[in-house]
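Co-fold these.
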Amino acid sequence: MADKLISKIPDGPLAEKWTKRKSEIRLVSPNNKRKLEVIVVGTGLGGASAAASLGELGYNVKVFCISDSPRRAHSIAAQGGINAAKNYQNDNDSVYRLFYDTIKGGDYRAREANVYRLAEVSAAIIDQCVAQGIPFAREYGGYLANRSFGGVQVSRTFYARGQTGQQLLLGAYASLNKEIAAGTVKSYPRHEMLDLVIINGEAKGIIARNLVTGELERFGAHAVVIATGGYGNTYFLSTNAMNSNGSAAWQCYKKGAFFANPCFAQIHPTCIPVHGDQQCKLTLMSESLRNDGRIWVPKKKEDVEKLRKHQIKASQIPEEDRDYYLERRYPAFGNLVPRDVASRAAKERCDAGFGVNETGLAVYLDFADAIKRLGHQRVAERYGNLFEMYEKITASSPWEEPMMIYPAIHYTMGGIWVDYDLQTTIPGLYAIGEANFSDHGGNRLGASALMQGLADGYFVLPVTIGDYLSHKFAEPKTDTNSPEFEVAQKAVQERIDKLFSIKGKKTVDSLHKRLGNIMWEYVGMARSAEGLKTAIKEIKELKKEFWSDVCVPGTQFEFNQELEKALRLADFLEIGELMARDALNRNESCGGHFRIESQTEEGEAKRDDENYMYVAAWEYKGEDEEPVLHKEPLKYEYIHVATRNYKD
Amino acid sequence: MEFNLKIWRQKNAKAQGHFETYHISGIEEDASFLEMLDILNEQLIREGMDPVAVDKGCKSSGPVSFDHDCREGICGACSLYIDGRAHGPDDHVTTCQLFMRHFKDGATITVEPWRSSGFPVIKDLVVDRTAFDKILQAGGFISVRTGAAQDANNILISHENAEKSMDAAACVGCGACVATCKNGSAMLFVGARVSSLALLPQGRPEAARRARAMVAKMDELGFGNCTNTRACEMECPKGISVDHIARLNREFLKAKFRQ
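Predicted complex below.
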């Protein structure tokens, strides 16, 4: 089975690989494209841009989303920006530097060829988005403005206030609308994919539940594209939207698609701290704030005590009694170190007893210096809406007192394993955007998720999928009355019937919260072999409890949000276990994955390149069977692999 | 904190709806309105599976359905009419960014779905807003193919116009403007999109066609006319100005004259 992991990386020099691959890919003539059908599941940046671009090419596209409109996909919530190697700032940026920063930021666990291609197409994304009418920030001369993000020393991030994800998604959604109007794309909102249908070893369709009527519906195609995002909600509390889930990807895994690096989850350093146990969602504060905000905690424990008792305010603590710990530990990058480094440093200070809120789980992000240096108006232009949002939520004004922040689960670098063409181990099944594993290694840099989603959707997938479809135009339309569809629908129906038949005593949310607690405790910012073994055991027990004592009210054939949540939690319980298993296997610290057994004397992450420089791709073997690990070795031909250094 | 919640319950689009009243206590003042509804739903599910509670007269309508997703005020999914105001008593927020500290302890709070012929109820507080998608499909885009674009900095846009365009583009498509308008008009929604694109050079070639097509679609789908009450601007969670309706009107008139 190991031979399934063929990455199909083209030969030749790095900078010529994508050009070479494109020239090899077979074309499909316009009259044949009309005969071909493609299903795209998900309408975030990846899904919407892919569906629109495939429609433009002339394929017949069916696009699915769980929300009431494609525009509400969670990409909409991305705040800070999108990276591109334009070098508009003349700061010596280049495709190579964007490539290098991304590989280094990912702690040398991503494929060189994929990342180079990402950097190569990044500039065209900005061109495309501007042409669509996306109102990026402009200088007074009318040229595009840039800002800096973590883990880099150039300004290559394009932005639209703190709503860049929204604007990029509305651009992709507009292109999608254009194609829906043209009749090349048909949109199915409020539909949730519950199974993948495979015929003769190839992906040929999906079973989806119409979330309004509750009916199970069958959809056939010549190829299926999964663009359903990540699985961060396994942790219950995360910055992901409430309905974001890993189920579509997970069903693909259970049908034979390998799942890669599941333990690589990103913990974002700047989120609003948890305020109580009634909370179900954490709010991110954009990384762009670290451009001008300074992160600190008090130097003295007595100040910490007074803060917790509300006897003093942060602004009253004199400069010399503040510990700007990121500037202290990482002088070269200061407050702009990558997310994993910043998150661990915050945890280190809080664990040492310097956390500043009542729970002891918060640090300050302070704008007092920036306001002094830049003035109120310029700070307001850059961050006004974020300050407002912070104040709405916390009832405290960042203009007067520093923000309080703490790390939270934000993104998952792991996902469905794909080759260079973004095809999974199942022929005809593709995965793009956050749903795949390919470009970010062990840690994603800020403003790179938007770049990857749009790179995959606009420029990579529409080309590479042609190679597969060029062999398929003679095949008739997929027959959804075939036995394979029958069996798949029956399996989904049985799963739903089983959930309603349990009639237990536990609500879905109460069980999900418990899964979240296990995950955060043992598969969170610091992981140990012992803890991970405990996690696996406890998740298994919780899964049993779920399948014997969950309560799903209502019926299938109606709008039923509790049923939706129950089906997703059933999958999160299995995803959580695989994450813990993968984390246990990877006995090294790298990127967002920190094993306490593997650290330097200074407490920095210690990679083990000799034993773990590979992609861990897991193969599903059955309900109670152990999954099988396959290894795709990573080769670095163009980058010198080194310890990540953000100190000098 | 504790509250009495008077909530609209409706089984499906065809069923007759009615209000049910629930009591809820132990709510933190930092809890959001939707977190409060989550807690209510946990309570309703527990009561529903407890036969004793049902015998004692607890409602068995099950948990309340409501649309929500990002809970950061950006996806536009949440859509509640609270105490007679779209998105509730706080200004310039969506319901998910409304916090219980804005209510008096012990208050009775009335929660309804958007009420507009353009947005039929699906269940309880969930409405069907696909009409908004249809309006945008009529012309709310720039017809550029993937890969056809020139270098981004070849199109110069003044800082001022980029900012104005962004003001309009901030629309989250929630539908509060329609729900608030006594005529059920979608002019602020349409105006925001038309205006955002009309302010940019890339949007000019199709400006006339876009304004005509989107207004025609809006009329066709049964949304009412604008009578300049400005209620939409007051209730828009993103503070989108009726100036954009004025720009839509200018674009629309220009398009008509050209015809």
